[in-house]
Amino acid sequence: MAQDGTPRGLTSNAVCAVSLSPPLLLFCLNKKSTTLPAILDTRAFVVNFLAAGRGDLATRFASPSVDRFLGTRWEPSQIAMGAPILVDDNVAHAECSLSQAVEAGDHFVLIGHIEAASSNGGTPLMYLRQTYAAWPDQEPGPRDEDIHG
User: Fold this and answer.
1) Is the N or the C terminus of the chain less surrounded, counting Cβ atoms within 10 Å?
2) SS3 sequence, 111-128?
């Protein structure tokens, strides 16, 4: 959430788990991002894991559009300083406090401590080879030890 009370958002093509104890995740953000100042000021953010079929929303949040939230219902996080939770468009979200911001070339590596999280169920959106798709439903394959004894 920006200082003027407007929501900020972006699309990240990768969010990575860092630690289970404490629960940490990371993503990298270009220093020119218009969302970066809001995250650094509030020291909080929400990661919305988008639902399958929401590639249009991911594309909008990846664009330089001024009003990325137009027509998108969201609620302010009570835990992450009002950061937007996309209630109709995610399969899960993580409400995070900023633990570290590490400068790395033209990006910052942002590490967030997961303060709260929720799963809504459903199929997540996947981005692979410049295409959005639903995460495939697959039966788990054989475990490595089952194959190699």
Assistant:
1) C
2) EEEEEEEEECCCCEEEEE
Helices (H) and strands (E) in the chain, counts: 3, 9
Tokens of 83: 């950061």
Q: By C-alpha distance, which of 58, 85, 73 is closest to 1?
A: 85
Domain boundaries, the chain: 16-148
Q: 16-148 domain in CATH 2.30.110.10?
A: yes
- DSSP symbol at 131: E
Query: Are 96 and 115 spatial neighbours (Cβ–Cβ below 8 Å)?
Result: yes
What residue spans of 43-124 are helical by DSSP H? 55-62
Q: State the maximum Cα–Cα separation within the chain, in Å, rounded to a whole number.
A: 60
Question: What is the distance, to the nearest Å, from the Cα of residue 22 to the centroid of all Cα atoms in its chain?
Answer: 18
Share of the chain above pLDDT 70, in %: 92
Question: How many whole angstroms separate alpha carbon 45 and alpha carbon 98?
Answer: 7
pLDDT digits (tens, 9 = 90+) for 4-59: 999 999 999 889 999 999 999 999 999 999 999 999 999 999 999 999 999 999 99
